[in-house]
Recover the amino acids of this structure.
């Protein structure tokens, strides 16, 4: 089985632009979560989607949004980019529930905002 | 709200020496506890998790962790490290509040194994 695939791997944008990141979960996984990783803040939860519905949301401004498609692929969008949005954005797909659940992380998209 | 504290940002250790990476958590409800490892330029990989039952949890690559409810700790240990264990390690908690998945991570501990 292919793992969690995130594209693109690297991205360079300028302030004020918008960006869309893509995540393809492992086949059969219906839950996708997004995390922002920065050296100072560590990993912070952005949101989780399950069957095309946002189920959980972290404490990020409205500039950060996401969606999930019927094939479970997910996109994350950041509008009006700020320098502080430079980070590694990780996507994780989830299998199972409760004690049986497992998270599988992609390698991330490294976003640099200049 | 839940929180995780990893007290050490960096831990240098010589190869074949034992290591302990510390993690303390705070939560008002029951939690699941996790340790993840991140190698350079890669995503996170699950090392081990505590859900319930035995407080000593064994994971991959020879790592183990002990859940201590009274001290709200979940320290990660390995009796003898290898150079390949050099990576960043993250402790995380997930509250048992029903549907959905939201992990709260610590800020990470960089383990550097030296010859």
């Amino acid at each position: 089985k292919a793992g969690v695939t995130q594209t693109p791997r690297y991205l360079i944008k300028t302030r004020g632009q918008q960006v869309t990141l893509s995540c393809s979960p492992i086949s059969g996984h219906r839950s996708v979560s997004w995390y922002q990783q920065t050296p100072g803040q560590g990993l912070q939860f952005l949101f989780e989607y399950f069957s095309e519905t946002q189920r959980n949301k972290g404490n990020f401004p409205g500039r950060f949004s996401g969606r999930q498609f019927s094939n479970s692929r997910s996109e994350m969008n950041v509008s009006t980019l700020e320098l502080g949005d430079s980070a590694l954005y990780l996507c994780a797909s989830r299998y199972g529930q409760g004690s049986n659940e497992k998270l599988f992380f992609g390698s991330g998209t490294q976003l640099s905002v200049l | 709200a839940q929180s995780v504290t990893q007290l050490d940002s960096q831990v240098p250790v010589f190869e074949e020496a034992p290591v302990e990476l510390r993690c303390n958590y705070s939560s008002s409800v029951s939690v699941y506890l996790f340790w993840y490892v991140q190698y350079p330029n890669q995503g996170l990989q699950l090392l081990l998790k505590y859900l319930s039952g035995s407080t000593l949890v064994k994971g991959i690559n020879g790592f183990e962790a002990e859940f201590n409810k009274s001290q709200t700790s979940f320290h990660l240990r390995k009796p003898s490290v290898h150079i390949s264990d050099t990576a960043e390690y993250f402790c995380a908690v997930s509250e048992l509040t029903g549907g959905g998945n939201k992990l709260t991570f610590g800020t990470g501990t960089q383990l550097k194994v030296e010859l």
